[in-house]
């Protein structure tokens, strides 16, 4: 991979830091657009009270001069406003791990006596740093006509009727929905389901779809397993906290069908070759085929519930109940925004690999007027 990024910081530490390496020089950054992505991540019906405390904004500490990337490592920081509140309180040791969280495995792996240390780093608060990183990638992709978005299709078993054949047409309705679902009837059902979970002290998961349009044919590779784009995308999206399933296109549904009904047949159209379906989700053989990219992800319910779960206090060896740590009731809409960031990050990397170059001007010189690559990798 040409691009790399590393995040640092804890949920209730002073802040989060991201270091981005390999990004081309010469990209004029829209900081307000990056902050807008951070605001989108904080939104969504069912979020916790912490989202009213934090006002996430990015600060650049390196790799940017006069608002333009230099080619050096980009350093971004996001302050945690809740840090001031956190350090004023006494926090007893956490010794009763929450099932489904990293509390127990983290304590065993690193030898912590206080599982709060594992809680702090494994928290999904870290995704604010990823969202800022993905916002950089979106701006690079935008220079070549690539758009990335997401839509929620299911929460708590309530499913939406969403046509993904033209995903850009869903943008306005998606962003207007408090659960980021363009189906207005499904939106109301999802909100009611979240309200019930809130009343009963429970949490909900769901499904979101990340899409990308404007991708040229030929990103990714089929010649090596670790360069297949479907594998890279699945790895990136599955790395998001609480994501337990990823499919490309109609992956699982296709597995239940006959081959003749699954594959996107090819026809001669007015503008050349065309397809009438996109069940493959824009990828064939680990390579983009020019159709919209469709990546679907399943998110489990959040591990922290108001109603306690059965556990064991490892300090005493006795049965115990989990202690409630402030958390969301449903974070699927926010997870979709993080999914966008991770998909954009991978796409920006494979596009840069395809075009080569150390600056935006070099990358542009290797495309046609309509933004299509004119060469293979120059690296």
Overview of this protein structure:
- The protein is of the alpha+beta class and 379 residues long.
- A hairpin with a 2-residue loop joins strand 13 and strand 14.
- The chain contains 12 helices and 17 strands.
- Helix 5 packs across helix 11.
- It has a 5-stranded antiparallel sheet. It has a 4-stranded antiparallel sheet with strand order 1-2-6-3, covered by helices on one side.
- It has helices spanning 31-42, 83-86, 103-110, 116-122, 127-142, 171-176, 184-199, 229-238, 251-254, 259-262, 332-355, 360-365; strands at residues 4-8, 15-21, 58-62, 64-65, 68-69, 74-79, 147-155, 158-159, 206-213, 243-248, 266-269, 272-275, 283-284, 287-288, 293-299, 310-313, 318-321.
Structural descriptors:
12 helices; single chain; four-stranded antiparallel sheet; alpha+beta; 17 strands
Q: Describe the biggest sheet?
A: 5 strands, antiparallel
Q: State the helicity in percent bands.
A: 25-40%
Oligomeric grouping of the chains:
single chain
Q: Which structural class do you get from the secondary structure elements? A: alpha+beta
Q: What would the average pLDDT be, to the nearest integer?
A: 93
Radius of gyration: 22 Å
Q: How do the helices and strands follow one another from N- to C-terminus? A: EEHEEEEHHHHEEHHEHEHHEEEEEEEHH
Report strand %. Answer: 15-25%
As residue ranges, the low-confidence spans are none
Please count the helical segments. Answer: 12
Strand order in space, largest sheet: 8-7-9-15-10
